[in-house]
Predict the structure of DUF475 domain-containing protein.
Amino acid sequence: MTPTASSTTTSTTTWGYFKWAIIVTVVGLALGAWLGWQSSGTLGGMASVFFICAVLAVLEISLSFDNAIVNANKLKDMTPVWQHRFLTWGIIIAVFGMRVVFPLLIVVIAAKINPVEAVVLAAAKPEEYARIMQEAHLPIAAFGGAFLMMVALKFFFDADKDIHWIGFLERPFKYLASIKGIEVAIVLIVMLIFSSMLDDDKAVSFFFSAIYGLVSFLVVEVLGGLLDASQKTMSAAAKGGLGAFLYLEVLDASFSFDGVIGAFALSQNLFVIAIGLGIGAMYVRSMTIMLVEKGTLAEYRYLEHGAFYAILILSVIMFAQTLVHIPEVVTGLGGAVLIGISFWGSVRFNKSNSE
């Protein structure tokens, strides 16, 4: 009788985590099918848009699973109040801001038109809209690559880090962490290497965009520390939340760059892309909260390491995409494989230490 009750509780809790994600999936796919019917007037067109929305959702989940783990690592130190704010306000910023407003702003800036004209362009001339987005890929990839590389290196270059998954790589990083600014130096060297392989105009755009990404990380780190430090005199419910919230939102934005640009390979319709990526973002948020509340990161000790290795590789891929095209499926599967291996390593560790 007891196992059944426990199983029911677990099942109910899991449903609670993914309830809104499932509801958004049903509504989103139905809306996608309606858009397909409106644009084509055929069952085939309706099925095609429905399928694209579903594929985009899966793509977003696969690309952002490491993001969920990193978010969970930050969220576990936040109060329930700020966890809730991240899940509510954060999802509005992630879905509406990054999947709708951000692509529109790129076109507004690149084409020097107003937001209304950008929306009209997205609806009436999706091919032109997609072309402008693709032309903006280089600076976006440079910015996101620099920011994510700093995120990953900050995890590995930590003098207090005492759990190592790939010891022969990670132990030297721990000892080198005492060198001030070593992460910044590494990112700058990588930026110089990639910019040297680009044409002059592209090299300038790449380097300045990457510098902005690097500076953004440093500003968010400093600002986040100041905000959280200023809250030490406040109530317990408000401590340690605002700075971390800001950090997570910028981190989410960096993760979204690649997915938003890559989505145009599957569809040139802004609204279809917003539906598909929005569905995926809901699952990422749900997974983040589940990881925190179930203590999964503590249970699987190498899972976090796998996520940060995936982030490091993703940052290099974003830089490399300024030189050659790398299919999004490679990016998504690469991260998923690394996280899967780290999960398997964690299970093996748990088994060996329980015997």
